[in-house]
User: Which sequence fits this backbone?
């Protein structure tokens, strides 16, 4: 017999705030000057809505993981396309940036190159499921996030890579009119990330289209983003418009910017320090002022699933 | 004397001015700012660090301003309160340091990062600030004598270099913010050196030869 036990993030429908209540409450707060300005004047976008509600996949949820509060997940974002200020992204990413409709181009060494609408892609992939992953930022903070989406390997099988395909190169959107951060700075836009094809085929590699059973908020990388939980957060590229199957290793944005500090692999590793801070421990987002740090786990706790990918590789040098 | 210059001579007014960062720190909490609630220790650590940096830059601008515009009444008024501002730079740096301690969570975590130049520059800078703050009272000035006191307080230039390094290293892409913060100070110092550098050097040479130490 299969007994379904409700987890804390598994809210009953009755406890959810309806969209109109939510908007009215914001108006009320605004009227009294209490609301965080970040949420005002926000137009609701829909991103990729296909497949909700998603089913929880219990295989992908380590014991004892307590998901981070939804408000913090969508209010504490590193998304330099909009701002360097983590608290400001939520406002700036919702001032008319359109994440629907959204197409992804898949090309390179594959038999079925295509440009496909994201909802269409989810349909073809067979819908979405929910997984709860640890999320560890290279800045030594962490969250636990219930992602909705599908396994990246499903997409790989769909497009049939050829022998020559050794790497996947992901690119995000480029639209300086909607994303003010793309007007300058030291980053060579658009943001690029990469994985080896073995990493991409790993069962943990995930394309997320939602969080907490709702379509991805813009600031979290709507409508579709990568999630590779054993790597530092910057590998999990947001708002993907292009996936290329390449023969040579792509140069990822952070490595390009600071090769001494950020590498291609960027595996979570408590024994390899960042030049400016230790990676041995992490701050838990939302745990308050005087909270102790948590020990960072090798491969962010996913050693069993991914360590075989790096056998014989010097992880100190290939950080 | 113009009214702004006059009110700046009031000790209570300068105190109030120097306390504004303390009042403003409650704003994000009242506004329900997620960045604050996500990690308050980190937020406060960065906040007090910046407050200290801005005050340090403002303080360091006083002398060049006085030299370049000797008749500028506002600069003259602030110059009288220089030591007071200096002590507040230290106090905000102390808050920054305490928040950093809270951020690391424990003593063992705290000392772990001292081998990183980024952290070390902050700790050395803070220690020097402590020395300057501790001698920023009338008793110390008398005890040390004006010349020695001045000499010791020239350490402020070393602190400035450490602070620029500390500030610039924490930036993740480029050095834009640091450049913005320190631009006015560097500009003023350059002008000051250009106008008075030669003159001052000549004067010092004269002093050194006539002074019996």
Assistant:
């Amino acid at each position: 017999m299969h007994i379904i036990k409700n987890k804390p993030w598994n809210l009953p429908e009755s406890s959810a705030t309806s969209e109109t209540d939510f908007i009215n409450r914001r108006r009320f707060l605004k009227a009294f000057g209490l609301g965080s300005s970040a949420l005002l004047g926000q137009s609701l976008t829909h991103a990729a809505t296909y497949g909700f509600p998603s089913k929880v996949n219990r295989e992908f949820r380590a014991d004892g993981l307590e998901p981070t509060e939804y408000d913090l997940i969508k209010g504490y974002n590193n998304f330099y396309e909009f701002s360097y200020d983590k608290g400001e992204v939520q406002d700036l990413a919702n001032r008319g940036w359109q994440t629907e409709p959204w197409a992804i181009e898949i090309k390179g060494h594959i038999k079925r190159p295509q440009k496909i609408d994201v909802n269409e892609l989810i349909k073809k992939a067979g819908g979405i499921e929910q997984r709860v992953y640890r999320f560890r930022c290279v800045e030594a903070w962490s969250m636990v996030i219930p992602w909705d989406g599908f396994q990246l390997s499903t997409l790989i099988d769909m497009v049939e890579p050829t022998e020559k395909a050794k790497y996947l190169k992901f690119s995000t959107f480029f639209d300086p009119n909607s994303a003010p951060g793309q007007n300058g700075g030291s980053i060579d836009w658009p943001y690029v990330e990469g994985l080896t094809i073995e990493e991409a085929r790993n069962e943990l590699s995930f394309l997320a289209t939602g969080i907490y059973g709702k379509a991805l908020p813009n600031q979290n990388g709507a409508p579709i983003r990568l999630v590779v939980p054993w790597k530092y957060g910057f590998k999990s590229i947001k708002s993907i418009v292009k996936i290329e199957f390449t023969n040579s290793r792509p140069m990822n944005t952070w490595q390009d910017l600071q090769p001494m500090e950020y590498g291609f692999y960027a595996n979570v590793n408590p024994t390899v320090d960042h030049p400016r801070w230790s990676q041995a421990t992490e701050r838990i987002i939302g745990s308050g002022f005087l909270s102790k740090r948590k020990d960072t786990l090798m491969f962010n706790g996913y050693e069993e699933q991914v360590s075989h990918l790096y056998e014989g590789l010097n992880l100190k040098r290939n950080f | 004397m113009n009214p702004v210059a006059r009110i700046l001579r009031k000790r209570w007014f300068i105190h109030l001015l120097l306390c504004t960062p303390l009042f403003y720190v409650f704003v994000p909490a009242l506004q329900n700012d997620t960045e604050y609630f996500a990690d308050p220790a980190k937020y406060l650590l960065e906040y007090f660090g910046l407050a200290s940096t801005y005050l340090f830059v403002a303080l360091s601008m006083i002398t060049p301003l006085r030299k370049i515009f000797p008749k500028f009444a506002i600069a003259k008024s602030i110059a009288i309160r220089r030591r007071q501002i200096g002590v507040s730079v230290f106090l905000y740096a102390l808050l920054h340091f305490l928040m950093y301690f809270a951020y690391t969570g424990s003593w063992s975590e705290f000392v772990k990062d001292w081998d990183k130049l980024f952290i070390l520059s902050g700790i050395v800078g803070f220690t020097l600030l402590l020395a300057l703050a501790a001698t920023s009272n009338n008793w110390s000035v008398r005890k040390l004598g004006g010349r020695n006191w001045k000499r010791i307080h020239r350490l402020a230039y070393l602190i400035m270099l450490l602070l620029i390094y500390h500030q610039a290293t924490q930036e993740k892409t480029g050095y834009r913010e640091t450049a913005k913060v320190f631009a006015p100070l560097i500009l003023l110092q350059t002008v000051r050196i250009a106008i008075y550098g030669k003159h001052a050097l000549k004067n010092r040479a004269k002093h050194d030869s006539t002074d019996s130490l």
